[in-house]
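I would like you to sit down with the pair of lines that follows and say whether tokens and residues agree.
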Amino acid sequence: MQKFLVTPQNGDWDWIDAIQMGMPVFAKMGVLEQDDRYFEKMYQMYMESRNVIGGKGLYNPEDGLWWRDADFDSPYTEPNGEDSYWSRGNGWVIAALAKTLAIIPADAPHREQYVEDLQAMAEALKKVQRPDGFWNVSLHDPTHFGGKETSGTALFVYGIAYGINNDLLDRETYLPVITKAWNAMISDSLHENGFLGWLQSTGKEPKDGQPLSYDKQPDFEDYGLGCFLLAGAEMYRLEF
């Protein structure tokens, strides 16, 4: 990890899944070693992903959502002409922001940037939640392999619930969102033995691992179960 503190490049997180894999580790190292250099490098790498990679960054502030990598930046579109925002990819980002905020000190540098981005994502996600409580694999094109999907939904529940629990998101506005989503996963996705249905397999875009179903066995499901458990743990902390 220390090598990152003395290397100039900041573009290693060139796909949004990497933000979740990297940010919380940098945050933890900064706390464990009491070294703000980790927080600064984390911020530089995050902002490179956000604003630079692909020519204009992987984050679209107009929509409050993220393209998976530079291949999906505009002018790439979904079949309906909308930008391509993959559900689980955006889930990794909001989860990374929540985990990082949970680790870093209250006075850590750049904390407000992460808070603002989590808030913007929550607002954007609220607008595109399905009536049944889930989110589609394609957040702006419900007709492109449309249907409920569990991993993205679970990550959104985790990130938004964290925001409520830590007074970053308005409880009255967002509690109905995550309550509906959590109840949907419990009733429509969770099997009695703990298996999760409607879970997209390994991939990077809506078409991967299709079609989904209640009984579909994804080729790698551990991250789906982990996402669900993250959501459940944060929901447990809510005061109803």
